[in-house]
Amino acid sequence: LAAMKEMGTYNNSTIIIIADHGSVEVANEMSKAVNPILFLKPAGADSSAPVKTSAAPVSQEDFHPTVLWALGDENYSDLGRTFFEVGENEERTRNFYFRVAFDGSPDESLIEYEIKGDVTDFANWKKSGRVWGSLAE
């Protein structure tokens, strides 16, 4: 980020830093909520303003429309809403895909969870019933 500021490209750049998962120390079942980090700075944002925390219920599924929007694609909304379009404390169901890998095996599965409400409260996480991979068989 410092190099971008030195080159004069920081202010005109959209910057997205996102983790693809949080930390879960279980074999094949989630036992706690995970909350991957997300940092956003839209092009043209006031770089002298302090960093703000948001309670907007965004998800990894909002990544693709956000990138297309940042690139100027007018059809970005075909894929959903951007991170910037989701309202603060909006009531919204998000999906989280939990990857299950089996020790020593190339088999893996994805288990879909639906999250309604505060992502940090695991009581708000429910399995949707959708599973892909060897656990689905």
Explain how this protein is built.
- By secondary structure, this protein is an alpha+beta fold.
- The chain contains 2 helices and 5 strands.
- It has helices at residues 2-7, 63-70; strands spanning 15-18, 38-41, 93-101, 108-116, 125-133.
- Strands 3-4-5 form a 3-stranded antiparallel beta sheet, with no helix packed on it. It has a two-stranded antiparallel sheet with strand order 1-2.
- The longest helix has 8 residues, at 63-70.
- The model has no long low-confidence stretch (mean pLDDT 86).
Q: What are the SSEs and their pairings?
A:
Layout: H1 2-7, E1 15-18, E2 38-41, H2 63-70, E3 93-101, E4 108-116, E5 125-133
Antiparallel strand pairs: 1-2, 3-4, 4-5
